[in-house]
Here is the input.
Amino acid sequence: HHRRAAAVGNDAEPVAARCLSVVVREGATAGTAIGELAIYSELDGTAGLPGLVERVAGSDSVNAEGALRTLRAALARRAAARGDLKLMEAVSALLPSAKGDGRRRLIELLLDIATQTPPAEGQGSEQLAELLAQGIAQLPAASVSAQLPSLTRAGSVGRKALERLAGSEALAKPLRADAM
Here is the structure.
């Protein structure tokens, strides 16, 4: 069965389907071509989940945003699960070296885990809080301030991350005070 969804640009919501059809309805003339089309599944290629997370951290914003939407859709489908340790491990491996928008997207993914599929209290919860705190502490000061409200909405994991940031020597005193 085909499932159809209207999609324009990078704002399309993921749709679960076994088959995909792409139709160009407007502007189609002789010589019309599709310049770029990226389709992902959560097990894209042989790299699987770590490969998708690597794309999220990458500098190619089109591929990164597509991979991020795919991972978010996978999280939404597994909302009953408690924490996604494999996904956290994949992010953990890339977060220290990620730069700019790649780091921001990885932090967004960690926040999605904290809000949608938070790990049970214990090791997974502590690991996620630590990853969030480390990732946010390495952002520019303005970006740190912008992320703090997201942590307040991320439940107990967000509170633990805020506690870590408040005690972090890596942050300037005013930012540590904001985290309290």
Q: What stands out?
A: Residues 1-8 have pLDDT under 50 and may be disordered. The chain has eight helices and no strands. The first helix runs from residue 48 to 57. The radius of gyration is 18 Å.
